[in-house]
Amino acid sequence: MRQPDPKPAVLAGRNEILAGLQAILPARAIIGDPVALKPYETDGLSAYRQMPLAVVLPENEAEVVAIMKFCAAEGIRVIPRGAGTSLAGGALPMADAIVVGMMRMNRILEINFPDRFAVVQPGVTNIGITQAVQDEGFFYAPDPSSQLACMIGGNVSMNSGGAHCLKYGVTANNLLGLRLVTIEGEVLEIGGTHVDAAGYDWLGLITGAEGQLGILTEVTVRILHSPEGARAMLAGFAANEIAGACVDAIISSGIIPVALEFMDRPAIHACEAFAHAGYPLDAEAMLIIEVEGSEDEQTDMLRRIREICERFHPVSMRVSETAEESAAIWKGRKGAFGAVGRISPDYLCMDGTIPTSRLPEVLRRIGELSASYELQVANIFHAGDGNLHPLIMFNANDPASFAKAEAFGADILRLCVEVGGCLTGEHGVGIEKRDLMSVQFSAAELAQMRAIKSAFDPDWLLNPSKVFPLLT
Amino acid sequence: MITPESEAAVADTVRAASAPLLIQGNGTKSAMLRPVQAAETLSTAGLAGITLYAPKELVMSARAGTRLADIEALLAENGQQMIAEPSHLFGEDQTIGGITAANISGPRRITGGAMRDHVLGVRAINGKGEVLQFGGRVLKNVTGLDVGKLLTGSFGTLAVLTEITFKVLPVSEATGTVVVRGLDPVAAVAAMSAGLGSPFSVSGAAYLPDRREMYLRIEEFETSVKYRCEKLAARFPGAEILGTAASLALWREIRDARCLPPHEALWRVSVRPSAGPGVLEAVAAEGLGGFLDWGGGLVYCAGPATLAAHAALCAAARAGGGVWWLLRAPDALRTAVDVLPPEPPALAAVRKRVQDAFDPRGVFNPMKMQAR
What we know:
A: Uridine Diphospho-n-acetylenolpyruvylglucosamine Reductase, domain 2; five-stranded antiparallel beta sheet; about 20% strand; B: 3 domains; about 25% strand
């Protein structure tokens, strides 16, 4: 993937830059040694690699401010990084850039149960927030599959979703405030512990901005009380169209389950081999449906959903009776990426969103593309909200195979836009989908977004090879 | 007043403008925030009509001038509703463009999210007269910067909204309300925090000081409403449970702030919920009455349009770590005071550059939000 040309003066001045960093940061915060830099050369999109000029690991906001002022003064590009779990290459370095890793800013600063918020540093993991509040029965709602590792700063930057956002919303819907350090080293306090912005919705703009506008040093999230319980059911169907029609029928009935996940036949087989969750191997498509509430409420809701599913002649249907059975059902889904990894060591995880009514057509056309590219694909889909995750399997040792996989992925995303959807539902544009942005946006729309970035980052030093197509 | 009937005509009007324009829908909120000095008014009232409604996909698109009341009527025919439950405090002629530009929500905002949380996409004209579309019609979308959120709540100062696409949800089968009487504001907020911090998905939590009554709302299937209301009521001695009809009437009254006394000026304050009672107390000394919604975090205040009342309200909002909006007042007060909290200099600088990025000639609603 093409990157902007490195700045020769920055590359040539590497020793002076490291010395400059040493003057403003403790030695333990600076990584310049090539061996120690190696882990930072890539992120969750490991097909792309690039060694950075240096990595810095600030431990407080003052250090972030110092780094930004230094980089702005020297014209050095900055790549913000959380846990490095981006599937879109959002944290891919540049040869002349300093990676600012936020993992050492990992403290929980305040938890307030009566007012239902937590103030945390960006390096706290997603699950870490829930773990800090669960003894009181609370949780932090967005739950991306990488939640054990991914950090809240990255979640905010990518506006991460998860399997339960049908009910609880994505990151943007669960935030109250931020502290953002601009490239000029100014600290912007956005929002607070109240809801709604008086003035522009900077919170909404910065969430999902993929590190284009600044570096986060503090995040205030809403916390919710957990429901009394949750239970999942499985239903297998004879065709993708039938499962899709069943999703429509559930939503039309007025039931919004807390999760509504769709897997096609290849995904069912991969996940069953991995998790032994009792997935129906004779089905063409399967739904995982989860409801919440008391035991009686769960039973009542699952009865309603079962009655709807039965109208679509399921090839199998199973309602979990215990928390263990529900966990097994989810184990297959949450482990889906790993499961596909067992079949094919390399895969690309795509992330388009489509209007749910177009699902059967989109899956049929993905199948046709799969045949013409001669690459296998497994489809996992947040069916309630239209977010599609095709996993394209390829062989990374064969450059031709990787090139085909990239082209296949791009065709899927073009298809998503063509049917009224978008390039990315929750993973972000990163570097992966940068060059497809003009499929979704006009030149004037891209120029408007670029102008917003320029208002925050006039010299384009922040993560400049991502999100926007390179200007030639 | 210019009232174009097509998006292209809006763009033409903007391109032709040589002096500031007052941007509005039906003008129901023209006394909100600062008065705008403009040579001409550009209204989007002529851009009316619902352009997409896919109930199974929970999505609707409407041109900016479409009346909220018309949208709600079509949704109701299909058993659906606006999730943010926008207030009708500004009457029945509010447009979806105005609701979006002012980010107007109602009681369900506390757990269901604000209008800004449900805007999926917008079409808008920037200050250069370019027709732009951001977001789309799908429920999950992180493609590019979230310009839809930036434009929501920007009061027509960045771009002219021409079409809004938003998420909708089914109306619940039943609604119930737990009423607890005889509470002072502090006890009421403690009760609302207990309700909102319960496992029962409370979808409204309000307190009316004049009645000394606190309300918790549940919207679910009939059996769940009964179960959850009984579980909640058991926590509060003497609590009463209202059925669906009484609940719907009560929450419409709260949504539209009908309990406020006749007034010259109207404010909205958003603070952390536990700070709500302090705001009520502080503004009472200046003759303002009010009530609490959003678990205590939203304080509507109404009373005399005096500088002293405004100053007391701002101080109380700040003390509660929050913010304020001057929603309605005579021009004299709106011109004289900070209708929104002033920005720190660094943020003001960014804001001016963002305004320049959208509206380089400064033609849209100049100084609607800030005097500078």
